[in-house]
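2 proteins. here.
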Amino acid sequence: MRVSDSQAVLERYRSITNWAGELAALDEAAWIRPIAAGKASTAGIIAHLLNWDRYLIIYAIPAVQRGEGVVFPDFDPFNAAAYDYARSGVSQRQLLDEFRATREELCELLLDIGEDTLRRPVTANGVERCPHTGTPYSLLYIIEEFIDHDRHHQNQIDHVRLALQGGA
């Protein structure tokens, strides 16, 4: 069977769990240290990704299934809640396990809702097209934006990991 474009997108989205699993090797100090002045820690970034996955599961996907648009929350308080969770005493292992399990759940849910729902035009905060590309929003397009978001944070963390190994 040929893998559809949507299946390939969802597999790319799922693949960050393999990379995140490698973060278990970070020592505690590196895990909780901000990646740069004024930035989140690796723990905070993973909690941030986890929080967005939960949001997609609880709010965004059900809205699309009801034929509604996606409404994203105000980013700053939403992200602050994730960073607070990372500082709440949750262990590195627990946070990584929660992230992996939630991303797996999200990807399975996206696979289960089907191609038509993934590609159905939707609004994102009332906007029909991405202001950067002009592409009509769909749940699949939003997931592709989240892949770019993941990649941005992955690159930030990888830069820090490389520096810890003496490579930068």
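next one coming up
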Amino acid sequence: MPSEPSWRRIAVERYGLDRATLIEERTHHSRHYFISVNNVRYVLSQVRRSPGRPPFPLQFRIIDLLIAAGVESVRHPVLTLNRDKYTQDQNCYWFLRAYRHTDTVFWSASPGLVTQAAHALADVHRAGHVRNPGVPGLHHPRRDGMAPYYRTVDAFLDTVDTIYRGFDASALTGDDCDLLDRTLERLRHDSRDVLDTAREHGLCGITHHDYRPDNLLVRHGRIAEIIDWDCAFVDHQLYDVGFAALQFGQRQRLRDNSLGHAELFIEEYLRGRRIRNLPEAVTWWFLRFVVVKRLLINGSNAERIRLLHAIEEHRPLARAPQPAH
């Protein structure tokens, strides 16, 4: 990240925080400056413009929609002096949010918090349900303009053969490659039935697309806020469920083959959405889809292949029933 524009200049010129002091700096995909002004703390985030990602302003339209719908775990950013939700400088975006103290949480030992996380996602999805994915203001960019990781489920499936041809499978064994081939074929084979069934159950709409422990703020044992909406767009909402179930069930390490927390997350999410008759094969299709997608794009081959083996051993692949018309 460039040294200029500096966090201090942005804080002063765009937000009027001329007495800010830096407490801490963290870097993930973005750079986050934890600052204090007269004993009031903020987080000033610097995001480099990246091609192939959802449009940066989209997250704020989504946040506005969710807050208007009554979702209490979502917060507006602090407005600039010009009353904007974010600001730009050179090749970076900046936005400011109020700092909120968070608890240290060991998710693997907290089934109660996993349940809370599932219900919080259910609240977001219920508020963000849309019948038409092309609803004005929430449309997703053209497929050919998006990096593979940020494509919708349908768009990723349309391009998965090309992605697979560029995949480096040198670290996989013959059995691993056979499993990956079989899973890809079954994902393709079952996709129409699964995705149609998901739509029949109203499971399309706003998705966070990075719903994991690091993006939930917990305070006094309760989930207080969901952050990092920069990957959000309209898609199949069960993608969020599959991704999150593995994140909360695997502690983000993909090393523990136990799927107990993943099953708990899925069960509580469906309870939160009041969905009682969704075929189990549908949710497990999304678990497999998430693992295969991240394997083909992000690597960590050995860990994700182990997880794929665990999923296959835990629950046999079964074709989803054809939805009634």
